[in-house]
Amino acid sequence: MNNNRLPRLKYIEPQTVEDVLELKKKYGKESLILAGGTDVIPLLKRRNISCRCLISVKKIPELKNISFDKNEGITIGAAVTLRELIDNKTISDAYPILSKAAGSVAYNQIRNMATLVGNVCLDNKCTFFNQSKLWWQSRKDCFKRGGDRCFVVKKSNHCHALSAADTVSALIALDAGLVIRGRSDTRRIAVEDFFTGDGRRPHHLQEDEFVTAVGIPPSESGWRHGYKKKSLRGSVDFAIASMSLRLRSNGCIAEDMRIVLNGISTKPVRALKTERRLIAEGIRAETIEASAGLLLKEVAPISSIGATVPLRKRMIAAMLEDLMGNVTGDAQRHPEKVSIK
Asked: Span 223-328: which CATH code?
C-alpha cells in the first residue's frame, strides 16, 4: 500500500448546504467534510482516518462570503480561506488579533488553501497518532485509534492528543461563535464551548452536522489585542503554546480582559482566575509577575515530544509578560527573568 495516495473514495461537490446535509444523512460516519483540505487530506493519505465519501463545500456560494452587519458583527463562511481573511481590511481593522493569528498558520501555500472554519475543526494532534499505518503495524493501538492506552501520558485512562489550531485562542478572546447546520435545525455555539477536551472526539459536533460559519460580535472601542505563538520552527510547526490577550483598561485598572491559550492541552484554555486577579489587583509589574504563577497552575500544560511541561511553562510565563507589556505600553521588564524569543 502506498501511503502517499488517497484511498478509494467518492468525491462530491454539492452546490447547496441542503445537498451537504442529504449527503451526510446518506453516508453518515463514512463521510467527511472538505473545506481547505490541508489537514483532512494528509490524515487520509496516512490512513489516520478513513471515509467512503469526501464532501467538498468549496463551491457553495453562501459559504464563500464574508459579511458584516453593524448589529450582528462579522460572519465568515466555511469556505473562506485564511488568505482571504488576512487580506480583508474590515477584519484587519476591527479584529487585528484574528488577522495575526491567521497569519501564524503554517506558510503561504497552506494559508491560500486552509479555511478559518477548517482550522477551528482541526483534529487534535499527537506525535504518536499522526504516523503511517505501516508505523502502527508494530505497535498496539492508542485511544485515538480505538485502543486502550495513551503513549503521551503513561497509564492514563484517556487520550491526551493536543488541541493545536492557531486561530482558536483569538476567536475565543473575541467571544466568537459557530453556526452549525443539521438536518433538523440550525444552532449556535460559542467557540469556547465547542471543544470537549477528549482527544479522540475533540468537538461537540453530531454526525449529521457541520459548521457553516464563524460569527464575531461587533468590535467595540477601547479594546487592545495581543497574540503570540511559540513553536520549534516558527509558523511551519504547530504551536508549543499560543496565547491571545484582549484587554480593556483605564490606566492601571483593567476593566475587562480575556486570556486564552491553545496548544498546551486537549482543548483551549481560558484563564478565568488569572483574568479576575488582574482585574481585581490592577495592571502593575508585581501583579503581572504574581499572575503568571497563578496562570501556570490554572492552565496545567501537559508534556509532549519536543515540548516538556517546564518548557511550556517558561514560554507561557514569558508570553503573558510580553503581551501585557505590549497591550498596556508598560516599558517595565524584569531583566533577571528569562524571556523566550
From this structure: 3.30.390.50
